[in-house]
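#structure-requests
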Amino acid sequence: MKFRFPTTMAVCLLMAVGSMAHAAPDWIEGKNYFLVSPPRAPAVGPGKVEVTEVFSYGCPACNLFVPVMHKLRQALPANVVIDYLPASFNPSEDWPMFQQAFFTAQALGVADRTHDAVFDAVWNAGELGIVDPATQRIKSKLPTIEDAARFYNRTAGVPIATFLSTAKSFAIDSKVRGAEEAIVAYRVDRTPTLIVNGKYRLHAESAGGNDQVIELVKWLVAKESAGH
């Protein structure tokens, strides 16, 4: 999703690019993928390659991208580390709250096993929903960090008080500020966006579709692996 990109348009766009045909891979820098300049050193060990999804639970295109991330994880070699970087640039759809909640869940060690469940709670079950099912418009009262605390208590057994105290801690505030700096440095202008090893930026539109995203990431990972 681009900055302030309308929700319905983002959904339609992601569905459209998912079905676009693409010729045999001949990836072009500046068209299919973009250099991050200066590159940011990934926090992974020797021989590892980091693949980061810049996303938000409040982003409809990111919700549709979940199956693609599952396929990508299965398609990548064992030396790849996948991580997630939550964005906050759409406050009208609760992105800052979801960013804070993600980093809190990560600090408490439950982010990985609750990742898909949060998307489900936002877009299917409605517990953390941001869209009014009756009007299909953004709710006037969006979920709060307290609502997120109750969700993580139900799904992961995290005490509500523990979640809230962690969410409001200096450590989480630092994580949020670090995420904002990284997103600016990566020049991310939409979600979902993928960053490969802190050096390359791409998305479904640039790659030519969801299947092509997987192939392009595999190609960039092989390129980085060969350079180790």
